[in-house]
Amino acid sequence: MRAFGYTEYGGPEVMHHLETEVPVPGEGQVLIRLAAAGVNPADIKVRSGLRRGRIEVRFPMPMGREAAGDVLDVGPGVTGFRPGDAVFGATAAGTGAFAEQVLLSAAGTALRPDAVTAEQAASLPVSVCTAFDALDELDLPDGATLVVLGAGGGVGTAACGLARDRGLTVLGVASESKRPIVEELGARPVLKGDGWTERVRALAPNGVDGVIDTVGGETLREAAGLLRAGNESGESGQGSGRGRSERGQSGPNRSRVLSLRSVADYELARELGGAPVTRRRTSAVYSQVAELVAAGHFTPVVSAVYPFSEAAEAVAAVETGSPVGNVVVTG
Fold first, then answer.
1. What is the dihedral of CA 319, 322, 325, 327, to 10 degrees?
2. 116 and 180 in contact (C-beta within 8 Å)?
3. Phi and psi dihedrals of 294, rounded to 5?
4. What is the pTM assigned to this prediction?
5. Looking at the chain, which terminus has fewer C-beta neighbours within 10 angstroms, N or C?
6. Rounded Cα distance, 141 and 209, in Å
């Protein structure tokens, strides 16, 4: 079976096209024929070894952790899916997505609506659903102002579009080249770089209600200073607006943290009083987001699609470039 991945941790040089055994679905797993797989910065961190001990890797390891395709077989104990179903989801532990046949975790697999393309579906589990989880945690009311740092990337574009659909005022911080997509998603663009906080204050002189960060570092530190005094959210809030998901209930016993969520700098987010985004990765959440896409509330931004033979180029586009939205490899 064709695959594209690595047999040891390292940089781009460890990636190769591989011949591997056809996987057999185990308990709680779904085997699919690959139609499309997403490429994300987190995939590169896994390959480099930065997620060692946190993300299971079994060599030879295909790149990628999200995929869409048609079901070929299911493992013991799996219900709700049958051969021929169009599905998407997260890869099973220790496996990857850049392969002719891919193992998905049944608990993180959902049916793909007809109105959602395979390329769009392959972008949902990591980037789009991360933004969805962040918005649910922040639980901002209709009309609140949200700043998105890195608004032109995969998580950032999703945060802009999904937040707009919830009735939020979105200020998207991005480069000038990404201004058109930020505007298209219904956000007000803010040019990144020196003076960006002053540009935000000009648009929101009384401060902002929430921050979603995909950048980290000093930019994240500066963003915390834009929040209104006393602005808090629940660590496990229940989202307001369209797309609400089941989470912990609000109340006096809930843990409260600053209305800041980061996918880029976990420790600094905690230091500043915010938090990392808690990912759910469940079939229920994936289905809910897919239905939002199918109904036209939000369209995932897929800026580049590479054939399987050019998987290395797809990874390079994410690793060395700054793509708009999501990059996808097709089977």
1. -40
2. no
3. -60, -35
4. 0.94
5. N
6. 9
The span from the CA of 58 to the CA of 90, in Å, is 16
Exposure on the CB side of residue 297, measured as CA atoms within 13 A? 20
Helices (H), the chain: 41-48, 118-121, 129-138, 154-165, 179-184, 196-203, 217-224, 266-271, 283-294, 311-319
pLDDT tens digits, 178-187: 999 999 999 9
Q: Of 102, 104, 108, 96, give the one whose Cα is nearest residue 63.
A: 96
Cβ atoms of 237 and 139 closer than 8 Å: yes
Distance CA 102, CA 112 (A): 16
Query: Under 8 Å CB-to-CB from 203, ≥6 apart: which residues?
Result: 171, 188, 190
Burial class (CB in 10 A: 0-12, 13-18, 19+), 296: exposed
186 dihedral zone (left: phi>0; alpha: psi -120 to 50; beta) = left
Q: What is the pLDDT of residues 160-178, one digit of tens each?
A: 999 999 999 999 999 999 9
| 158: three-class secondary structure by DSSP | helix
